[in-house]
Amino acid sequence: MSSAHSRSAKLQKGHRLQKWIAQKISELTGYPYGVDEMIASREGCMNGCDIRLVGDARIKFPYSVECKNQESWSVPQWIAQAKSNEMEGTSWLLVISKNNYKPVVVLDAEVFFKILEGLNDKKNRIK
Predict the structure, then answer these.
(1) What are phi and psi of 72, to 5 degrees?
(2) pLDDT digits (tens, 9 = 90+) for 6-32
(3) Is residue 45 pLDDT above 80, yes or no?
């Protein structure tokens, strides 16, 4: 396989994960996703977060998303990249996957516990 073909296949694999994440965020927030929408998957050559969120979509989903779909995992390096792309008013969030594995989310433990706190607050209000 040529190196150009290999790079293209890697970009497509990563882009599939990004599109899946954008779709999931769209389902969660109710905002559509796509090229000219409030939620979009970034092209492989662009800098910044892998999922572009604007306006109310960023308010409803306050995370700066970094996606990695690779066979060899470099989690500490990817966390550093996610932190460096973290946008103001959001928390970094890393989504990683590889062939034959479901995607996994990595985020700061304090953020995780705040999410759980929020869920418990909602449950207690409903009772």
Answers:
(1) -105, 125
(2) 556 666 767 899 999 999 999 999 999
(3) no
Provide the residue count of the chain. Answer: 127
DSSP string, 60-116: HS-EEEEEEE-SS--HHHHHHHHHHTPPTT-EEEEEEE-TTS--EEE--HHHHHHHH
Amino acid present at 127: K
Q: Alpha carbon 23 to chain centroid distance?
A: 11
Spell out the domains of the chain, with CATH numbers in brackets.
3-126 (3.40.1350)
Asked if residues 95 and 65 have their Cβ atoms less than 8 Å apart, the reply is yes
Contact 68, 18 (CB under 8 A): no
If DSSP codes are grouped into helix, strand and coil, which group holds residue 29? helix
Q: Are 58 and 27 in contact (CB under 8 A)?
A: no
